[in-house]
Amino acid sequence: MNARGRESTDFYSVIADFYDEIFPFNEGTLRAVTASLPEGKTEAAVLDIGSATGSLANALARLGLRVTGIDADPRMIDLARSACAGPDAPVFSVGDMLNIQELFPGTTFHLILCFGNTLVHLPDGAAIRGFFDQARRLLTANGAFLYQILNYDRVLDRGIEELPVIETPHVVFRRRYLPRDDGRLEFAVTLSLKETGEVLRGTLPLYPLRKQELAALLTAAGFSRQEYWSDFRMAPYDPDGMILVGRART
Questions:
Q1: Structural domains counted in the chain
Q2: Dihedral of the CA atoms 130, 78, 74, 27 (nearest 10)?
Q3: Which of 31, 69, 30, 34 is nearest to 52 (CA)?
Q4: Are residues 138 and 202 in the same domain?
Q5: How far apart are CA 118 and CA 127, in angstroms?
Q6: Same domain flag for 43 and 96
Q7: Edge-to-edge strand order for the sheet containing 139-150?
Q8: pTM for the full model?
């Protein structure tokens, strides 16, 4: 910590109030989700894991879908609830993605979403496999699991340690991915506030999940049908692409 900055391991509390400015809502993401709805399910049930400030969940609810959002960060959930009011608004709660079966006993969903690099916040492949098992059990027979992470094959093979800086009228957001001794990456962010000059910092470990391991874990959890893309327009997967978007069904 210094006189003009704050450091925090409570990572998302650092950026929550600026999240929508740094990561604005993407209509392409919405189209990818609606394209994955079971045919004729105009009131489908959707679970958004890592729902952040609720922008996607709210957009889906406006289409008539029954949306539930969970996030591990209480500040994110507070912001989501305040932004999404009304009788048909999504239902938001603080929750652990490794406990979704306990959170939603006896409930099934037509779609389960896990965007924003949320998946790799889990500590290792075993935890990810456990999450996949729970997600499969919560899906309807014709349901789909959609997810998005960074393309970690590209990150690891190229030794990428920093992503492009995001600058908005109010903030400058920097992201670094630093190797750790345990095989994970230390995700370190710096958020500079232009108006005050304050610098906010946060760190957390991420598990760099390669595509081959991802496919094996999905298969082991019972997802026999898998599709991979390089963006939310569903362009074919490119090993040199920045992100990996996928859809899995049983």
A1: 2
A2: 40
A3: 69
A4: no
A5: 13
A6: yes
A7: 91-94, 66-71, 45-49, 109-114, 139-150, 243-249, 225-229
A8: 0.94
